[in-house]
Structure formats: structure tokens, C-alpha cells
Amino acid sequence: MKVLQNSKFCNRNSLVVTDRYAAYNYFADKNRQICWAHLSRDFERLVHSWNIEVKVLGCYLRNVATELFALKKALLKNEIDVFRFTRHARKLRKRTRYYLKEIFHLPEAIGASRVAKNILKSESMSSNSRMS
């Protein structure tokens, strides 16, 4: 990580988009965003769970990710303004937290519960100011 720190690409205010790999904990949470494409793949794996409750909640999470990507596309095409994007993204974030907490509290879904816990732990990073 020192290579990045000393590079001309590094700026104290830069936002680094990463997966949840622990090596990236080097970066401060406020400068780090969890990649939504990676989260989307995690949600897709939940959809294929043997546990019906996890499967249903995984579908809801996948739908949230799909909505967020569509929202970003609409923003980039100037179909919506930043205010509407931000307002709707906050609602999606709230739904994401709710569904992940539901999975986390399922006693019979240990693996999915662990995934949900890890995503929730990094949740503040998944909603940083820019979406990539």
C-alpha cells in the first residue's frame, strides 16, 4: 500500500473503490468505497442459498443492486438530478441494511449470516459519496 501512498495518483481526499479484502483496511473508511459490483455478486450467491429465507432476502438485495445501477445510469444520462439520485440511493441503502440484518439474525443460516455481518461491518464504505 505504500506504493499507492507515495504515487502521484494518491491524494488524501481520493476515494478508493475496493472489495472487502482485509488488506484494503489500510485506507481510512471515509476514503474507501466498497465496490457495488462485488456486493451484487455476493447478493447473487445469497439468491442461490438452500435456505428459503436467505434466498428470498437475497432476491430483495439483488433487486436493490439492480435499482442502484439503473439509478446511476439515469443520473449519467441526465434523466434525474443529483438530489433525486441521492434521495433514492439513501432509501436503497436503508433497505439494504434492513435485508442484511434480517439475514444476519437467521440462526440456521450460519454462512449467509457471516456474509451479511461482514457486509454490514463495511456498510459505511459501500455508501460513500460516489458510486462505482
UniProtKB/TrEMBL annotation:
Q: Which Pfam families match?
A: DDE_Tnp_IS66
Q: Where is the Transposase IS66 central domain?
A: 14-109
Protein name per its UniProtKB record: Initiation-control protein YabA
Which organism's genome codes for this protein? Trichonephila inaurata madagascariensis
